[in-house]
Write a structure and sequence with these properties.
By secondary structure, the chain is an alpha+beta fold. It is built from 9 helices and 20 strands. Strand 16 and strand 17 form a beta hairpin.
């Protein structure tokens, strides 16, 4: 068993008596792409800044490859950070921006020149050495910020919402670039975003955070298909989250109708939360499904139709389908047992914040 590259041990941090991180522990393996995902104020950027040395934890330790680096300043840590505001030096050429860290380390001129060429090639900006920062687009500036970080050959690259200022097409292009760079360089990436699609696209591991706690950690597929609580289900992708009664193992009642599922161990006749993704609902002719309803809303989304189906209890089910069902059409809802996710109801608001299955 290899020791983790980063091991955060019982980190707590408050600002002005507001708890931002509460006893957070997290390990990151070498050569992985880990994304800290969550809403504004959940603690993800503070976690990144503590790893980078820009904030000190109130309690806890930051261990890097077995060494305690909690009290080391940022410039002494074997890592680099790329911020949302790229912090490029506008009075310097592109080459001087990229060489900045190497010059501080007193590297030989020939070595620095080789590194500049290599980094520009990696980020697909060959020949840009003598350009000014102001002449570059946002996407190009982003690439230079990454080039400046990777010439230092850090074992860990921290990225704080680095694509936030880019338009959609550029963001998508840069997502592929970042995945390629990680694979080519073998650097470990820790990436902060509130954009679920970005997290699902790029990560090996997603850490979903809320109110200073880790709600769930796992692969993108695991987080999406097996959310551990209502917060994760609601935050990652669209979800129908409805109250249910677990009648017994593998049988749940939703709004008076019985659905076969695959979950066990929730007890008998126990109130639960049920998660069903919109794409997992099949609309079938009346009498062929478990719940009846009427299509009350329809939007064409390009890849699929997004519909709302209102059932007699008044609940509006979100449904994604490549088949069109016009507004006013009577339908039944049918769901495969494997696509019904059962979760414990939180016993309190605190439990809701922490995540009931931790």
């Amino acid at each position: 068993m290899h020791q983790p590259l980063i091991d955060l041990q019982h980190i707590s941090k408050s600002f002005d008596s507001t708890m931002v991180l509460d006893d957070l522990s997290l390990t990151v393996k070498e050569n992985s792409f880990v994304t800290l995902l969550g809403p504004s104020g959940c603690g993800k950027t503070t976690t990144l800044r503590i790893i980078g040395g820009f904030e000190s934890p109130d309690t806890g330790k930051v261990i890097f490859d077995g060494q305690d680096i909690t009290s080391l300043p940022p410039n002494k840590r074997p890592l680099n950070t790329v911020f949302q505001k790229y912090a490029l030096f506008t009075h310097m050429s592109i080459a001087d921006n990229i060489a900045f860290g190497l010059k501080i380390k007193n590297k030989p001129k020939a070595y620095i020149n080789d590194k500049i060429k290599y980094a520009l090639k990696l980020v697909n900006l060959d020949g840009y050495e003598n350009r000014s920062v102001d002449s570059l687009s946002g996407g190009q500036q982003q690439r230079i910020a990454i080039a400046r970080a990777i010439v230092n050959e850090p074992r860990l690259l921290l990225l704080d919402e680095p694509l936030g200022a880019l338009d959609l097409k550029l963001r998508q292009d840069m997502q592929y670039e970042l995945i390629r760079l990680k694979n080519e360089l073998g650097i470990t990436f820790i990436y902060v975003t509130h954009d679920q699609e970005e997290a699902l696209t790029m990560s090996d591991t997603i850490v979903v955070m809320n109110q200073g706690y880790i709600q769930q950690m796992g692969s993108p597929e695991n987080i999406y298909n097996e959310p551990e609580n209502a917060f994760v289900a609601d935050f990652i992708g669209d979800s129908n989250i409805v109250p249910g009664i677990m009648i017994r193992d593998e049988l749940v009642e939703i709004f008076g109708s019985k659905f076969v599922c695959v979950d066990k161990g929730f007890g008998t006749n126990k109130p639960v939360d049920v998660v069903i993704r919109p794409e997992d609902i099949d609309l079938v002719p009346p009498g062929e499904g478990s719940l009846s309803g009427v299509v009350t809303h329809l939007i064409f989304k390009g890849v699929h139709y997004e519909m709302e189906v209102t059932t007699p209890d008044g609940y509006e089910w979100l449904v994604h389908s490549t088949d069109l069902f016009p507004v006013g059409k009577a339908v039944d809802l049918k769901v495969d047992p494997f696509d019904i996710q059962i979760m414990n109801k939180p016993a309190s608001e605190d439990e809701e914040a922490i995540g009931v299955n931790e």
